[in-house]
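Appendix B. Chain record.
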Amino acid sequence: MIAFTANCLYTPLECVEQPLLLVEDRVIVECGSRTSRPIPHDARVVDFGDGILAPGFVDIHIHGGAGQDVMQADSSGLAAVEQLLFKHGVTSYFPTTVTAPLDQTWSALDRLANAIESASRDDDSRTDRAQPLGIHLEGPFLSHVRRGVHPPEDLLLPTLPTFDRFWQAARGHIRFMTIAPELEGAREVIADAARRGVCVSLGHSDADLNSTRAAVAAGARHATHTFNAMRPLDHRAPGIIGEVLTDSRLSADIVVDGIHLDPAIVELFLKAKGPDAAVLITDAMSATGMPDGRYRLGTIEVEVKDGRCLADGKLAGSVLTLDRAVRNVMQFAHWDLQQALRLATLNPARVAGLANRGKLEAGAEADFVVLSPRGEVRNTIIRGELTEAASRHRG
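Structure tokens predicted for this chain:
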């Protein structure tokens, strides 16, 4: 048994002063305070001094990093992405596709399914890498009008046979799907995907209010990078954004990098969705963690300069990290660290259906981060295992 201690701990719903986090066999067995019970005499003690313990971050929308694109990377390339995520506090992630020719998408889904299954089998040795838990299918069921940089020649109308082909290629590992609800056939595919346990997310859409409401009735329950690649909000025709901001059945995510959204819009979004339904994503691409230059987003070439990722003058993902997104929420919306952490931990875990992640409590996976009071990542712990770097920097 290992006893982890620090200055405080965010569950994230509660703050525990002088915490005692007991871990055995990769699972949290107790989460409490040292003021209410002694440290077990047979436990190995790891003290993180004035640090803050919080659940490991969960990124439900990420295309790559460290020079690697998840649709093209081999196992070593994905390992590089996962090690970069680990450095920024991410312990679980959902590799995200981008619209491409069907044969390339099928191949990518097969490779990502291999990675997910391999990570599940070999989890004892993966203590310095974020774990892929499922696939986010972004495209090809997107609006031509709001496609962003997704190649128009590869966009498709949603059909049950096409979705089933994706499902089979991914061997059932699709956990999220972004779809434009106004497309012909969308409601049937939304209902089918929801029945299979997929979190259907509305995005890259020019939908009006009625089409959006029909999609929610069919089983959609989330929204992808709200405001971006969506019909703008109109006070007489509120459209998809009007429904996303006001429907309590929908959770929704945003990219808080100071580029995708003005800080005032971040504050508006958080007031509308509140602490229960707002989620942070990175939408990060292969250039994350790399110098300025030209990089790939699926089949798309992207120019990256000063944090802005552009293809043909349009935003093409980001170089945001999730820890930075948390700190940006603190700055833009004036939330404290505990409030902001929920958007990168408990909320995305709930949206993804992860009952044992995103929180620190007995029975949960021992995946957590050690933060400074300002939200900088000092250490990342997966399955309760200290890496050599974490051992050097504790206390």
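Further analysis of this model is presented in Appendix C.
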